Amino acid sequence: YTSAYKPGSEHEGVQAQSLAYSLDGGYTWTKHTDNPVLNRGSAEFRDPKVIRYDGGAGSYWVMVAVEATDFQVVLYKSEDLKNWEYLSSFGPANATGGVWECPDLFQLPVDGDPENLQWVLTVNLNPGGPNNGSAGQYFVGDFDGTTFTSATTVTEGLQDPGRLGEYRWLDWGRDYYAAVSFSDAPEGRRLMIGWMNNWDYANHIPTTPWRSPMSLARDITLQTRDG
Q: Which end of the chain is more exposed for a tag (fewer CB within 10 A), N or C?
């Protein structure tokens, strides 16, 4: 999880990744005494998603997180979840009209073919969506255990405003943000839930004591369209 250090802390102004563990199946949690476990000295380093990689490069944990204002997904590896080694960065690419947040990395079969697996990198941004405000985009390509290589990048670097409609979006509406998937769902399904709101108006929705729900769970698949 991300620790955002407040004034007076020895890490004041920094966002870094910390670790908590459970010994009772997730009912209670204890913060690791040596937190943070990964600190880049950055004020905008957040939103870790940790997956288990088993491939040609070996078997280890991989964390995808963001340098939000640099429009970069940063990747790290670990054997024990406590000591992290930098692997690579991805971005800027495609939509960069707002900060990047909440990345995810996973494999999906194309058209249901288990022999044709592609890696998918998702990253949410705010603002800069196809219909204004918050949104989530995705890239399809390959991950070799170190580097993610996109086969669907339209714009390298900062976005071309005229090509927004060519980028790949998780949803074309305005209320599907910070979407992240579950690992190891039954039957090999890739299930994703997003925040059903938009930072353009999230603070002005007239409900109390809470504002906005989460989306329904979605089955994520890759299908061929027009080649």
A: C
